[in-house]
């Protein structure tokens, strides 16, 4: 059906005007109103409708569209219902092209080919996917072309000329030009260098129609764009207008608004025709052209990893990739990091937990003490190295996301040490739960910004950090805190954390009574995976060492209250990478729970996903009360209060140690210290304490006993 989009642009050109394109979210403000609103848009003079497929984690969208997504999901919207709406729209007389716009994960979960075919049959004409750039799109794009659908490439002010050329070759109907760096949203004015941008894009894309979006809201904007492009896209402003208008007036208001934008152009719906001829594959092999341009493509961990990011972020990750690989190969970079080892407390100590070993009565248990690092966890290894990298890149500011606050504190610390301005994004719910760490960050001179979107937790802070980064790339580095995110972050974070595993490897034969070369088991807890990747990566070639990662099973993996992503998740795309994700059957990312905020995340680093696939590491899970038991045992047997995150690994390691003979050796990375958790544990004990027989209330009757 997508010849329809081409015909529409051709017709608009014939009439000497740009195509009017509008975005609305399917299921917003209610499922029943979506089709009437589409009809109202058509009546007002809209030429193409972008129908938003709601997603729980819309990284390219500003607050208005984020809220529309949330509301539509609360209304029960999913991809099956989007298709029903498209079908209904066609039945009710929507004749203009309908493009489906959204994010890749729900489609991936639905099944790419099945979804594209069903969308075609329902009457849709094409796709616009915000997080499927050139690097990742070739498979989906070829499904679109073979199913008769258009795939619309997005270009941004940061898109380079050579990239524009390849993207233009991909465009079978038009190209969407994102007018400014940032997320969707109307700011009242258009970007001042829009003319220049359009000229540059045009110089590379030839006669392909260009439609301009992001920030458009008025007739003046429409006229300004009309002079330089072939299509004008309005999204956020329309969503706000619908939101702010009483239900009974919405359709009329929408028609009137569009009429105002298009200059009261008469609209004759009876003359609209649908060209149902499928779009044919473009001449020449796009696949080949794209591959030739990208060389070896993006580094991946088997099928996991990649760069599932909005085009607008492409520049950021490319700059970072180049800087990181140059630094990694430069001995002076490592010399500089090492010069801060005394500041960080490295090398961190490793020793036998003799009382614990005796108590357990099985394998010997050794502790790698990342809790002794400056700031109290392994997070400083990565934060400090990234801040040094940021300085090398000439950045004067850093941003970071944080959940528990440990990474926020580590980044604020490194930023203070190097004189960089630091802003930490933190979900409003986590700000409430982790008040002490918020205060620590502020003491260190960082600004803490509360994120109020979505679930108001770590994943929303990650979304917001990615959105923020694009607006300030020129002077700001994003210090991502775990082995997650788009390439090169997972590789970079693992590289900076791999000091943990390297030190274990070097130290172990020196401190083992028989000089044994390797431990038999190495344990680490997993949130996003930086502690685990850092602990394991050095051991990957030594297959005699069993690597065991421990996830947070919260209230149990058979409940909806856990964060055991590798155990209970499914492959998908989140925060720029293909990996395991906790998600529902519609591909919406699930809410998670863990006793430890640092493990409370619905994704996991892609490298860990690849270790699960290859079987090189084993992933176990540990419930809240079991972690609390691990917390108690280490505190009372060794006098070490571990972080609740680390307590997960401690509990599981003890379980395994019990089953092993005394000549076996287990190393546990104690990723952080538990001071931050003491208050939380005190609050939790009345609920969880009875499950493990732990009661710390002062018993006045026994007070005088010795
Ligand atoms: C002490 C500690 N351990 C582990 C984690 C989990 O993070 P990751 O899986 O990236 O190591 C956190 C996260 O905040 C943490 O603070």
TrEMBL record:
Species: Starmerella bacillaris
Tryptophan synthase beta chain-like PALP domain spans which residues?
Answer: 347-672
Indicate whether Disulfide bond appears among the record's keywords: no
Q: Which cofactor does it need?
A: pyridoxal 5'-phosphate
Q: Which CDD domains match?
A: Trp-synth_B, Tryptophan_synthase_alpha
List the HAMAP family. Answer: Trp_synth_alpha (MF_00131), Trp_synth_beta (MF_00133)
Q: EC number(s) in its UniProt entry? A: 4.2.1.20
User: What is one term from the GO cellular component aspect held by the record?
Assistant: cytoplasm
Please name the InterPro entries in this protein's record: Aldolase_TIM, RibuloseP-bd_barrel, Trp_synth_b_CS, Trp_synth_beta, Trp_synth_beta/beta-like, Trp_synthase_alpha_AS, Trp_synthase_suA, TrpB-like_PALP
Q: Which family does it belong to?
A: In the N-terminal section; belongs to the TrpA family. In the C-terminal section; belongs to the TrpB family.
Give the pathway: Amino-acid biosynthesis; L-tryptophan biosynthesis; L-tryptophan from chorismate: step 5/5
- Pfam family membership, one: Trp_syntA
Q: What class of enzyme is it?
A: lyase
What is the name listed in the Swiss-Prot or TrEMBL entry for this protein? Answer: Tryptophan synthase
NCBIfam families, per this entry? trpA (TIGR00262), trpB (TIGR00263)
- Provide the alphabetized UniProt keywords: Amino-acid biosynthesis, Aromatic amino acid biosynthesis, Lyase, Pyridoxal phosphate, Tryptophan biosynthesis
Catalyzed reactions per annotation: (1S,2R)-1-C-(indol-3-yl)glycerol 3-phosphate + L-serine = D-glyceraldehyde 3-phosphate + L-tryptophan + H2O
């Amino acid at each position: 059906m997508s010849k329809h989009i081409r015909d529409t642009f051709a017709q608009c050109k014939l009439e000497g005007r740009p195509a009017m394109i509008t975005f609305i979210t399917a299921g917003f403000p209610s499922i029943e109103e979506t089709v009437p609103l589409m009809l109202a848009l058509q009546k007002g003079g809209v030429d193409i409708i972008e129908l938003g497929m709601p997603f729980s984690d819309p990284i390219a969208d500003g607050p208005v569209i984020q809220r529309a997504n949330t509301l539509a999901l609360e209304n029960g919207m999913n991809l099956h219902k989007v298709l029903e709406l498209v079908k209904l729209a066609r039945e009710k007389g929507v004749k203009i092209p309908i493009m489906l716009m959204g994010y890749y994960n729900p489609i991936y979960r639905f099944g790419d080919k099945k979804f594209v075919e069903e969308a075609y049959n329902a009457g849709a004409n094409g796709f616009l996917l915000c997080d499927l750039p050139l690097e990742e799109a070739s498979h989906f794009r070829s499904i679109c072309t073979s199913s008769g659908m258009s795939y619309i490439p997005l270009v941004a002010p940061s898109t380079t000329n050579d990239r524009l050329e390849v993207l233009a070759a991909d465009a079978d109907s038009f190209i969407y030009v994102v007018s400014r760096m940032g997320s969707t949203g109307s700011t009242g004015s258009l970007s001042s260098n829009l003319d220049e941008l359009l000229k540059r894009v045009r110089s590379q894309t030839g006669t392909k129609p260009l439609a301009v979006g992001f920030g458009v809201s008025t007739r003046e904007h429409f006229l300004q764009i009309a002079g330089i492009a072939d299509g004008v896209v309005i999204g956020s402003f329309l969503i706000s207008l619908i939101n702010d208008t009483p239900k009974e007036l919405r359709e009329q208001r929408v028609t009137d608004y569009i009429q105002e934008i298009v200059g009261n152009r008469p609209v004759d719906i009876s003359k609209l025709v649908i060209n149902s001829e499928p779009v044919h594959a473009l001449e020449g092999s796009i696949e080949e052209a794209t591959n030739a341009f990208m060389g070896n493509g993006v580094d991946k961990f088997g099928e996991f990893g990649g760069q599932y990011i909005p085009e607008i972020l492409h520049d950021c990750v490319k700059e970072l990739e180049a800087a990181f690989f140059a630094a990694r190969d430069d001995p002076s970079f490592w010399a500089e990091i090492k010069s801060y080892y005394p500041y960080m407390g490295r090398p961190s100590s490793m020793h036998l937990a003799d009382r614990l070993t005796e108590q357990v009565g099985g394998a010997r248990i050794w502790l790698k003490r990342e809790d002794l690092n400056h700031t109290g966890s392994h997070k400083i290894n990565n934060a400090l190295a990234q801040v040094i990298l940021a300085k090398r890149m000439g950045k004067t500011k850093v941003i970071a996301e944080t959940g528990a606050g440990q990474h926020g504190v580590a980044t604020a610390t490194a930023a203070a040490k190097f004189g960089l301005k630091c802003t930490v994004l933190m979900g409003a719910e986590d700000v409430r739960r982790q008040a002490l760490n918020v205060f620590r960050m502020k003491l260190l001179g960082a600004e803490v910004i509360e994120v109020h979107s979505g679930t108001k937790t770590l994943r929303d802070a990650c979304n917001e950090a990615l959105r923020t980064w694009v607006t300030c790339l020129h002077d700001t580095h994003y210090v991502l805190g775990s082995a997650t995110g788009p390439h090169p972050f997972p590789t970079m974070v693992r590289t900076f954390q791999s000091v943990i595993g390297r030190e274990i490897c070097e130290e172990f034969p020196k401190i083992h009574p028989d000089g044994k070369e390797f431990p038999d088991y190495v344990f680490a807890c997993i949130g996003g995976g930086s502690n685990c990747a850092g602990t394991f990566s050095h051991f990957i070639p030594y297959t005699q060492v069993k690597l065991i990662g421990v996830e947070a099973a919260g209230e149990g993996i058979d409940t909806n209250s856990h964060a055991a992503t590798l155990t209970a998740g499914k492959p998908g795309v989140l925060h720029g990478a293909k990996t395991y994700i906790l998600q529902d059957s519609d591909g919406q990312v699930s809410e998670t729970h863990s006793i430890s905020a640092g493990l409370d995340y619905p994704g996991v680093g892609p490298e860990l996903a690849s270790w699960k696939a290859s079987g090189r590491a084993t992933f176990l899970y540990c419930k809240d009360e079991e972690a609390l038991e691990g917390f108690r045992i280490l505190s009372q047997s060794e006098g070490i209060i571990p972080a609740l995150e680390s307590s997960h690994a401690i509990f599981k390691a003890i379980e395994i140690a019990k089953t092993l003979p005394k000549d076996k050796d287990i190393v546990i990375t104690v990723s952080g210290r538990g001071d931050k958790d003491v208050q939380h544990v005190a609050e939790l004990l009345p609920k969880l304490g009875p499950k493990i027989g732990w009661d710390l209330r002062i018993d006045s009757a026994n007070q005088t006993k010795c």
